[in-house]
Amino acid sequence: MTLPFVKQPGPPSLQRIVAAKGRGRAFPMPLQPGRRLLDAVREAFASQGFSSGVLNFGSLELAPLAYVKPAPSKTPANAAFYSDPFHPAGVVRMEVGAMTFGARDGAPFFHCHALWREADGTLSGGHILPDETVLAAPATVDAIGLDGMAFLAMPEAEINFTVFGPVADETTAQCGAEIHALRLKPNQCLHSALEDYAAANGIRHARLCGGVGSTIGAVFEDGRGMPGIFTEFCLTEGTIAPDEAGRPVASIAVGIVDHLGNRLSGRLRRGANSVLMTVEIVLAVQASAKAQASDSPASTKEIM
To answer: What does CATH list as the number for 17-22+177-303?
Structure first.
């Protein structure tokens, strides 16, 4: 199957995955109402000793909510862009979502995609804006705090955007389970990128966590597809496990929206989905099933 391709404005680098290896700890994160979502997440991570991490969530109530949708770019400066902001009235109830939390320009920041139901019953989804979104009710979400690495927003010449990527932070204590934080670059197979990385790093079993990014349209295992090619997705479930031959195989389920307003959920077809702009995702390794455990210090590297 020929993978879809979207030309980017900048030159592609030979290395297609940026990765940092360290440690991490999963914990239930309580979020308090009346706070900006950004502040509530920052405070909750800080209370556990973390400055960066990822979230996955289901039920979550926000009011106000500010968001944008994926959109075609109006200029050749970018392959894809964002719509104007939307501000739906009333309490918006999240259905599924994922978040990368880190720093941009020296301040806390997040990248968050979700699907939700608005107060008038409208089903929608997109990219939540950190500065204008407030928690309307208490909630508890699934979090992983990162130790020995962090997500930082950095300029990426290939796509002409500033995006999150993992970097090493050797000042932290390196406690918890083995974690690999990744950024996938455009125009590569989502499944193959994760499988090749796992094979190269001796990872046989892992849980996929966080998971925020975009694909060029989408094809699901059951044959459904997104009509629009500019999308944003949040991971809802994902694993890496060996097949009968011992090769790592990725299973990826998402909630996704496109620039035409369509939204779907389900398991993506292996070998049929390409990264559009970027994907941030964390591999939580099951240490007992890892081919060869390593206690080496965290490092940041480019992976072919």
So the answer is: 3.30.1330.80
